[in-house]
Amino acid sequence: MKFLLMVYSDDTLLDALPPGEFDTRMHACITHADELRAEGRLLDAQQLEAPATAKSVRIRLGRTSVLDGPFAETKEYLAGFNLVEADSMEEAVRMAAELPWAQTGCIEVRPLRDFDAVRRRVGA
């Protein structure tokens, strides 16, 4: 099964890390990601730019609006993701707990829907 591990960060907690700790954690995270990729368990991983660089697009009553920045004001923001292959939700949760960012934010674990099944259902 495929799972998306969405990494949410909290700048307050990241800024409170001792000098050099962020880079140490990032190095460990990248090294571990390389190991998981070699095992075929990490399918993709990406970081996102800061929320201030985002645009929010909405269409309401046929009118498109584009706003700067994220939609919601929150302490935690989506900072990146890992697409993983795991045998179960429990295994995916264990993988999420291995990410150092669970200590300074949150890792949301969500199973991917079988998109081919959706495609077949709607005849696309």
Automatic annotation (TrEMBL):
Recorded superkingdom: Bacteria
Gene3D superfamilies the record matches: Dimeric alpha+beta barrel
One of the Pfam families matching this protein, by short name: YCII
SUPFAM superfamilies on file: Dimeric alpha+beta barrel (SSF54909)
Cross-referenced InterPro entries: Dimeric_a/b-barrel (IPR011008), YCII (IPR005545)
Domain YCII-related, first and last residues per copy: 1-115
Record-stated family: Belongs to the YciI family.
PANTHER family reported in the protein's UniProt record: BLL7171 PROTEIN, BLL7171 PROTEIN-RELATED
Protein name (Swiss-Prot/TrEMBL): YciI family protein
